[in-house]
Amino acid sequence: MAKIPMRKIGIAGNITKVLGSILFIVCLSTSHWHEPNSSSHSGLFESCFNIFGFYRCTEIGWAIDEAGTIVITTRAVLFIACIFLLIGIITGVLAFAGTGDVKVEAAMDIIGSILIGIGCAAYAALLGALTYGKTLSANVLGYSYYLGWVSAMMIFVGGLLEAFGTKNITRGPPQGAQVYPTATMQQQVIWTTQNQPGPVEYQIPRAAIPTQLHYGP
Asked: Which pTM value belongs to this model?
């Protein structure tokens, strides 16, 4: 499979997708998804508390009774999003090498970005349901959460730009190949004699050879 050239819009899509993926990694690795007050904040993998002016962070496990429904649900959706994004990255590398399809890469990126948005929306909805009726500060979302939305939008836009950023290729005959025009047998013999040096081998069409011989009057 030949390499598929890309327009500038396709290259811009790849750059946008890479930047969005970096923001996605930052939003996953930081612990500012939920900021109920100035002395505590938590993320998807750790929770931090301010003790005598110093923040002490503890890891959030994978048991549902420890992590809670909000964290487990968000992790599950974002984990599936990571799988699609990883497939998109691998397909993109193969596409640049000439053995992959840019359209598949774009589709994986778009699906992954939608799943990131679903994960962020689920986190906010479940947190809102859990803190319903409590103080307004109990439902404060931190910058890690908003980075998730920004990364989802950037990856989505990058996928669209990748999908429409490939050039259509009109393939011609291989270099050095001789193209024989449609002509009668006599014209082809004359054309071959004039353009091919050396002895000419004539091939009689099978249909012109009689299959039965008849002898007698």
From this structure: 0.71
